[in-house]
Specification:
- With 151 residues, the protein is mainly alpha-helical.
- 35% of the residues lie in helices and 4% in strands.
- The protein contains 4 helices and 2 strands.
Length: 151
């Protein structure tokens, strides 16, 4: 149906066959926003949400992963603000403004605080120190900071 559907299919196969301790998957259906059609952007968000649920269901149905796996879900970038000069709102993220660099993230898994909303600015560069801390190693060259509220 989409490249993301194929990516999720392949990720599920890799999980079942090889049981990797770390799997990084990117989904791109949301990038349809660059076309400028808001309805397609919303459809991309819904598809991505469904794909993330499929991955989580795979994790929970596999004894090797269940209750031992943390899932980080986030888009690749934020979006330009509607009033950013040179931007196109939801369509792009090219201005480099704080909105274009700020994004949302959802984290599920053991040891992650449930129903917690982090009410401060989080940028994509915060992901590396957060994952490093979660996996028990340092990321001394990372420029972001760990999202301590999650753990």
């Amino acid at each position: 149906v989409s490249p993301d559907a194929l990516s999720v299919y392949m990720a599920r196969h890799v999980m079942r066959e090889f049981a990797p301790s770390l799997l990084f998957l990117t989904l791109h259906d949301i990038d349809v926003a660059h076309s400028g059609a808001y309805s397609l952007y919303i459809e991309g968000i819904r598809n991505t949400d469904r794909h993330c649920a499929d991955i989580w269901d795979e994790i929970q149905s596999n004894p090797e992963y269940k209750d031992r796996t943390t899932l980080f879900i986030l888009p690749d970038f934020g979006r330009d603000g509607d009033d950013d000069a040179g931007g196109n709102g939801f369509q792009h993220h090219r201005t480099g403004s704080p909105l274009a660099r700020t994004t949302w993230m959802m984290v599920l898994g053991p040891g992650i605080r449930q129903n917690t909303v982090v009410n401060r600015t989080i940028e994509s560069i915060d992901l590396v120190p957060t994952i490093a801390g979660r996996l028990g190693f340092d990321a001394p060259y990372a420029q972001g900071r760990q999202i301590a509220e999650l753990i």
